[in-house]
Amino acid sequence: MYCLVFVHQTHLTVGRMMHGFGDDLHPFSETVECVDDLTTSFIAAMTRQALANSKKRGHVRLEDLMFAIRKDRKKFNRAKELLETHEEIN
């Protein structure tokens, strides 16, 4: 049951985000599922890469995730910007 609730909740969130970025108020469920799958796959790949970078410690730190995206300047700069904004807010 938990898995179905989680999937439903992520689909709602992705659908709302798509609307926020200019899509229809109620985007096609197939499109939402596709975007959700792509996002989940990206997060899983980055987490695996960060975990591989942190094998000696046995746990993933923020620095490991930043190291994993370091070659993609756009993603790296955006992550850095979001982290700085988070620091300012807290």
Write a structural description.
With 90 residues, the chain is mainly alpha-helical. It is built from four helices and no strands. It has helices spanning 2-20, 29-53, 62-68, 73-89. α1 (2-20) crosses α2 (29-53) and α2 packs across α3. The longest helix has 25 residues, at 29-53. The protein is globular.
* Oligomeric state: single chain
Q: Please provide the count of β strands.
A: 0
Q: Point out poorly predicted stretches.
A: none
Q: Compute the number of helices.
A: 4
Cα-based radius of gyration, to the nearest Å: 16 Å
Helical fraction equals over 70%
**Backbone shape:** globular
- Please outline the major beta sheet: none
User: Which structural class do the helices and strands define?
Assistant: mainly alpha
Task: State the end-to-end distance.
Answer: 35 Å
- The SSE order reads HHHH
Percent in strands = under 5%
Residue-averaged pLDDT: 88
Describe the protein's topology.
Elements lengths: L1 H19 L8 H25 L8 H7 L4 H17 L1
Helix pairs in contact: 1-2, 2-3
Features:
mainly alpha, 90 residues, globular
